[in-house]
């Protein structure tokens, strides 16, 4: 199997695995809501609703733990493959996998996570997930009183203990200002309002949304697709380069990937750099440094180019 095929297969497997986690998260959230509805006190007890919000929030913490495990498993899988490719390319001995796994793999895993996953999936992200669960409940609830209770909680902020914060306030204030939320709500009206609010939430952020280190908001699907592709590619590059450098190599070629700008990635900087040799340390005269490569946008998010040790023919 080629290196490109290995990387693409690992990316595909990683995406399948995270989609299972996301489906499970949504199913568990709705299961919690359904359980509280079945108890029959959700419409009349604000305390009962607050416990439900806390349970949804706690489930979201478990979700963060599952994402941590998914990242670690997938980064290790790709890193081991490309450690092996480095071993195949290099004359002489290379660091054993056991040593690499202990000394270098933790740093690679840490490098592919913008922040700790609990921080990345906390705060407003947790709030969006709770709000999504409440809007689903409003659309499906059989009781007008439940609907009015949900809207009251969102409006008054009593759901804050469960993590319902800025995203709910943002949506609610818009509806209050337009008079779209009537003071007394029937089941049909509540379901219609909830659907419209959920549509607006989707436009803003999706069922769950994630904020990267630059403050950009991503929908859950796009966030995890990008994270999945990027973390596998960075694991491949990191494992290969660290192994090769420890064996004394400094000159690498940008290889693999998808070269050629498209409507999705116009003016892709990789177009001009694929196949070029660079110096990882920046100390080999006559070659651009790794810092030069990064500064022009090569190895950007979603980029699946990897690197390999430059051959003698490529150095001529």
Biggest sheet: strands side by side, in what order?
4-3-5
Number of strands: 5
Poorly predicted regions are 116-123, 160-167, 204-208
The gross shape turns out to be elongated
Instruction: Give helix and strand order, one letter per element, not per position.
Output: HHHHHHHHHEEHEHEHE
What does this molecule look like?
This protein is mainly α and 316 residues long. The protein folds into 2 domains: 3-221, no CATH class; 250-315, no CATH class. The protein contains 12 helices and 5 strands. It has helices at 3-39, 46-89, 97-103, 105-112, 117-120, 124-140, 144-156, 166-178, 187-204, 220-246, 270-273, 290-295; strands at 209-211, 217-219, 251-256, 277-279, 305-309. The strands form 2 sheets. A 3-stranded antiparallel sheet has the order 4-3-5. Strands 1-2 form a two-stranded antiparallel sheet. Strand 1 and strand 2 (217-219) form a beta hairpin. Helix 1 (3-39) runs antiparallel to helix 2, helix 1 (3-39) packs antiparallel against helix 10 (220-246) and helix 2 (46-89) crosses helix 6.
């Amino acid at each position: 199997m080629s290196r490109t095929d290995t990387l693409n297969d690992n990316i595909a497997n990683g995406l399948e695995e995270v989609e299972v986690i996301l489906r499970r998260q949504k199913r568990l959230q709705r299961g919690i809501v359904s359980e509280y509805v079945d108890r029959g006190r959700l419409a009349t007890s604000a305390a009962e609703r607050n416990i439900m919000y806390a349970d949804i929030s706690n489930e979201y913490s478990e979700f963060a733990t599952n994402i941590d495990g998914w990242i670690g498993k997938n980064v290790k899988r790709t890193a081991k493959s490309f450690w092996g490719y480095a071993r195949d390319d290099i004359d002489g001995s290379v660091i054993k996998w056991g040593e690499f796994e202990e000394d270098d793999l933790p740093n690679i895993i840490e490098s592919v996570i913008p922040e700790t996953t609990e921080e990345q999936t906390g705060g407003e992200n947790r709030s969006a997930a709770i709000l999504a669960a409440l809007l689903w409940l409003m659309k499906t609830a059989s009781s007008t009183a439940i609907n009015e209770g949900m809207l009251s909680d969102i409006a008054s902020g009593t759901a804050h203990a469960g993590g319902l914060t800025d995203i709910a306030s943002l949506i609610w204030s818009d509806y209050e200002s337009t008079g779209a939320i009537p003071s007394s709500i029937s089941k049909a009206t509540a379901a219609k309002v909830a659907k419209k609010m959920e549509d607006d939430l989707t436009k803003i952020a999706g069922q769950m949304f994630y904020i990267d280190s630059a403050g950009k908001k991503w929908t859950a699907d796009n966030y995890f697709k990008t994270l999945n592709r990027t973390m596998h590619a960075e694991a491949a590059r990191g494992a290969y380069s660290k192994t090769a450098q420890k064996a004394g190599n400094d000159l690498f070629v940008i290889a693999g990937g998808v070269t050629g700008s498209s409507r999705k990635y116009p003016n892709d900087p990789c177009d001009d750099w694929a196949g070029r040799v660079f110096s990882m340390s920046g100390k080999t005269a006559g070659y651009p440094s790794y810092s030069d490569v990064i500064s022009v946008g090569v190895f950007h998010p979603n980029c699946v180019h990897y690197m390999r040790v430059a051959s003698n023919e490529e150095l001529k």
